[in-house]
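Thread: "does anyone have the structure for this chain?"

Original post by V.I.:
We have the sequence but no experimental structure in hand. Need at least a predicted one for the grant figures.
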Amino acid sequence: MGFIHKIGPEGAIEIVTYQKPADFALEHVLPDGEGGLYLLGPTSIFQLCEGSVRVLANGFKDLSAGAAVRSKSGALYIVDGSQVVVIKGEERRTHSTPLKLPFGIAVDPRDRCYLTDHLGNTIHAIDPEGQCHRIAGTGSPGHRDGPAAQAEFCFPSGIVVDARGHLFIKESGRNESHLEPLRIRELTPEGQVTTFARINRAP
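Reply from O.Q.:
Generated one for you, tokens below.
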């Protein structure tokens, strides 16, 4: 038996139980947009609805990043090792990327996919034709704001996109500097990078 804690809008916690498939190790949970959940295991994706679990897709190489997002059109985008897999209905497409360590993923209303390269210190986009382009970052770790091509990122991890097409990127920072503030960077559609927020860590 598996258990997932669901927190409602008012803060109430509900425990969702489900029959766990054999040899299943839960890596990540994602809403499916239809009242259920996607469950990501190491090499398979399951869909949980009303307590029952079905296999949605399998044969993945490495889902350990736990990075997946569902677009408004209903397509599921998953980071699988150095690849991005897109599943929509019965269709499944795989896009290769040159990234060193894809980490965060986001999709805008036009189904354009954005990725952070955690070790490459860059931000990339995959267009609907499947081409991967660097859109920000020099590749050197740092915190320089300015035009996207000259901006620096320091181990970018999570990423989200708002309705205006602005990207917000969380930086993990240098692991050896535990007192270095965490940063949220903003990348505009015009290609300007700014520091949206600095979050001081507890000493």
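V.I.: this helps a lot. The two ends are 40 Å apart (CA to CA).
O.Q.: and Residues 126 and 132 are 4 Å apart (CA to CA).
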